[in-house]
Amino acid sequence: MLEKLVSWARKKSPWILLFNSGSCNACDIEVIAAVTPRFDVERFGVLVKGSPRHADVLVVTGPVTRQQASRLRRIYDQMPDPKYVVACGTCASTGGVFKGLYNVMEGVDKVVPVDAYVAGCPPRPDEIIDGVVTLLSLIDSSDGRARAKAREPKMDQKQPVEVTA
Amino acid sequence: MTDQPKPPENPIVGALKQDLGAKAVDVSSPRARRIIITATPQTYRDVIKYLQDKQGCYHLSVIQGVDLRTAFEVVYHFWSDKNLFSLKVPLPHDKPEIGTVTDIVPAAILYEREVHDLFGINFPGHPDLRRLLLNDEWPQGEHPLRKDWKMDEKKFYGGVKGIKGGAGNA
Fold it and tell me: What ipTM, to 2 d.p.?
């Protein structure tokens, strides 16, 4: 009973944190468009927060440069459980056009476990909203199975990975 | 395809050849407003001073590094409102070193740092030859834009330990 209530509360107010891990800013502009009144993702209770300690969902754009990787990991570690990650855009999902470059990690899932991927270069605000709503359906599960499956890390190494300060 | 008439040689090429004499190994102009000068590490400073004083090159567009495998090349691009002068200076591959031009071209300070960072070309006399573009944890002595550069599987290039990423996956 209480679990259901908590799950409902969680689903109705997912607070998000935006993180640019070396993006070209196109995805960021689309994310900002999605959270502002024109597309208004706030009708799902989504609020943008300025601190990882207040956030439930981490929205990451960019291919994760080597300079940003440890910072992304640190921000993820600062978020309270349960936490979710949305990789927003092609670069954040796979590395995109930056794949094979010497200075990128090629995707957010190399550094932190990712729950939802939004494709597109950049993704339209509608697609970002679709990704967020898909994520909300993961959050809403009394048995929590969907979420556990989604949080399986997509990397060769075992979690948690070692973080260099 | 019709044969296009060959444009007449840019008159400035002849003037440059006359003024620079032996200081310039080669002067050419592939198209209008574009002049390519090849100099040596002994004469490039004189050529830059000549471009500044006599051709009105007040603006340094960029300094490029080029890896030709057998040699390195540093290319200084100067703009004079009328022409874009590209000054090429070839350097030996085993000892890529060329004196700084920051004393006569202050704008070169960042470009020289960039070329030093990515190509490992040394600029003696530069006031502050720190790392510019590569991340803080990048190992010393690795220059990713060199043609013979390969990511060393054993080294840590920054990011998160245990994850290769980037060129390490290839």
Answer: 0.70
